[in-house]
Amino acid sequence: VSDGPSVEEAYRKWADDLVRYATALVGSADASDLVAESFAGVLRAGEERWRLVRDPRAYLFRVVCNNGRMSGRGRRRRERRELVWLPVADWSDQPADAPVLHVLSGLSMQQRAVTFLTYWEDMSIAEVAAVLGISQGSVKKQLARARAALRKELS
Amino acid sequence: VRGPDDRVAARLVQEVADRAPSAPEWSDVLARLAPEASPAPRSASRRPWMLVAAAGGVAAAAALGTLVYQRAGTDGDLVTASTAPPVSATDAPDTTSAEASRPGNSATAVFAPSAVPDGFAVVEAGTWDGSWPYSSTRVSTETWISSGVDGSVDGYVRLTANAAADLPNLMPPTPTGVTVHGAVAQADAALGPDGGGAVHWDEQGMRLSVSSWGPDAVSIAEQSVVTASGGIALPAGALPATFVRAQTEATPAPVTGRSSEVRWATADGRTLGLSARPNSTGETVDTLGSTPGARRVAAGSNEVWLWRAGDVTSATWLQGDHVVSAGGNVDEAALLEFVASVGRTSEPAFQALILEASALDQAIAARDRATFVDGVEVSMHSDAAIDVPEPSSFGPRSFCATGDRTFCTAEVTPFTDGGLLTGLVGSQTIDGEHQVLVWLGPGRTMTRVYDANTNADLDVTTAPGLSGSFARAVAPAGAATIVVEYQVPGRWYRDTLRANLGVADPLADVRAPNPQAG
Asked: Does residue B60 have a pLDDT over 60?
C-alpha cells in the first residue's frame, strides 16, 4: 500500500504535466477536459484503490492515455449524447504558423503518446512501456513509426 | 536528442507543450463526480462557473456537452431558486405527444424530485430517447459481487457478450498487446496494480467484455467460457469464494423509454444531479452495487446504493423499470432526503425545470446576433471576448433562437484557437425542426456543411452577424455527426468543426411560452 500523495495532492503536483500530455493525445480543445475526467474517474474508483498504486505519476499518465482512447469511440459518445471533437481531427484547428502540429493528425494515439513521453517527459523505453502497458519492443516500434511519419510529413 | 528525426520530434512536442491549455481547477474535477448510471455530461460544471463568476469564483470546466432538447412548462411544487418567470398552471404547454403527457406511462417516464436542498437552482434539464438502439444486441451477461463484513461492496465482476456486428468501431486502432483466448484484446480502463479494469475482444462473432475491480480482468477473461449459443460464462471456482453471482437475467429484454437528467447548482459552485434511464441492461438492486465501498440503505421507499468520493455523495437505485442515480456535493442525509422525494413526474413539471435552465442560458451576455430571412433570430452568448484571445477557453456559452418561441441551450461545442473563440456549434428545435446552429468568428468563411456519415451536403441558410456569421440547417434524420468546413484568411488549409448531434427528443415539438414574455 502506497503512502504517497492523495489524489488531490497528485492533481496539484502533476495536472499541468498531464494537460500537456493530453494536448498531444487529443488536442488543446479537449486536453483539460480529458485530465479532469481522468481524475474524476480515479476518485470514483475510491481511495482504497488509489492507495494501492505504486507509481502514481506513471499511473496517471496511463489513465489519461486510456481515457483519451475511449473518448474517441463513437458509440460511447452517442450514448452520452455529447458534442465532441473526433480526436484525430483535433489538430485541424491550429494556426498557420505551426504546421508542424498538423502532422500529429497522421499519428495514432499510441504514437503520439510514445513520442510525447519520450521527448518531453524524457522517459526511457522501459518507463514508456510501463506507462502505456505495452512491451518495450512495441515502444521502439511505435517510436520508429512516429519518427518516420514525422520525417515524411515534414520533409 | 540525437539525430534529425529526434530533433523534429523534439520540436513537435515542444510546440504541443507550448499550446497546452492550463489545467482545470480541482473543483472542476470534483464537480464531475455525479451519477454513474447516466454519465455526467462534461458541461455539467460550466453553469456553476457562471453562477459564481459574479462573486469572483473560480473557473470550471471545458464547455463540451450535451444536446438538450427543450420546451417549457409549469409546476410550482419544486423548492428551487428559480430563475424563470412564474408560469401559471393554466399556461401549461400543449403537447403534440399525447402518450408523452400521460403520467405513469413507463415508456415515457421522466423523473424529478419534489424538493431539493436550499440554494440549488436548476442549470440543466433534458430528456431523450433512452431506448435500446444505442446499445448492442445482448447475448448474455452475468455479474458477480463480493461484499465485506459490513455489507459494503469490495469486489465486482461483470461479463457481457454482445453481437459484434452492432459495434463496428469499438476496437481502437492501437491494441495494447493484450490477448484473450488468442484474440487481440483491448484493455479499456486504467489497469491498476490490483488488476481491475476492463478488457474487450471478439470471439465467435461476438464482442466479449469483462469489467472488474478487484480480480484481474484479463485473467478472468482467459478463464471464461464462450459459446456461440450461450455467450460468455465463468466456470465454477474462477473467482474467490467471497464472490456471489448477482441475480441478473442473462439476456435482458430490450426496454424502450425515456432517459432524463436534471442538474442543479449553488452560487458557491456545488452541484446536484439526477438522471434516469430505462433498465435496458436488466439491472437488479444487487447488480447496481458496482461501486467500491457502496452501502445499501433505505431512502423512503427506495432501496439505494450510497457511496462517497471526495466530498461528493452519490446514490443509485431502481425505480420501476428505470435505473435512477443522484449525486452532488451534499452530505448523505441531504442526498437521502432528496432521493426519497424522487419520483416519476408529469411532462409539464419537467418542462418547468427545462424552462428554468433555458432562462439561465439566456442570461449569458450576447456576443453576436443575426436575423435570418424567415424572421428567426439567433444569438450567440458567451463570457469570452470574440476578437481578443482569452487566457482560457472555458466558460459558459449558449445559443438562443427566437422562432415561434424563444429557447436557449448551453449545450454547444466551442472551438478556440489560441484562446480566441472561433466557432460554436449546437442544435436545438426551431419552429418544430431539429436544426444545427453554427456561429463562425470574424473573417471566417463557411465553405461546406455536411453529414459526416453520408457525406451529403446540408441545405444551409446563412445570416451575417454583427461580428461573425451564423448558419442554420435542418439536421438530417439519423445524422450523428455534422461537419462544418470553413476557410481562415492566410491559411493554406480549411478548418473544420465537428459535432455529434445525439438524438431528437420526443418532446421536441412541444410549444412553450417565450421565457422573456414574463
From this structure: no
